[in-house]
Amino acid sequence: xxxxxxxxxxxxxxxxxxxxxxxxxxxxxxxxxxxxxxxxxxxxxxxxxxxxxxxxxxxxxxxxxxxxxxxxxxxxxxxxxxxxxxxxxxxxxxxxxxxxxxxxxxxxxxxxxxxxxxxxxxxxxxxxxxxxxxxxxxxxxxxxxxxxxxxxxxxxxxxxxxxxxxxxxxxxxxxxxxxxxxxxxxxxxxxxxxxxx
Length: 197
Hints:
By secondary structure, this protein is of the alpha/beta class. The chain has helices spanning 18-26, 51-59, 78-90, 108-141, 154-165, 170-176, 181-196, and strands at 4-10, 36-40, 65-68, 94-97, 103-104.
């Protein structure tokens, strides 16, 4: 007989998982208290980085059933949820979501639902990329310099180039300019690229 587990998550310690547990029991899932996994963790944390969910996954075996009230309990976004459900399905675990009428997300109908979720996840990702690209373009047009600011100004970079050409050690130059060795090596690398062109 399949063991039934539930995963109930809230974002803050002021919240409680009590309503989620009641909703699962009211839907007809008879879950032993020791198989109710409750966790307080932000929804922005991916499923595989949640300690309680990780322990639950270690307990789940092929043939088990996992019940959640909503999809967002399983991941931080549609893509994370899809990956989590696929991994559980590969392990032989059925996943039921009450918000989707108690549908088994690993069944044929559930797989169709997950396909729609995948499309939504891809759409979300594409929108994010578009917005990021548009934001970067606006910043460039406004004359903003993108990326991390240089650790050294132009005059200091010229000093670095001169000292490197004279054979000074990277560590000594970094110490004299009160910067890191990596900064000096980046200047050396950029300089070698310019001389090769």
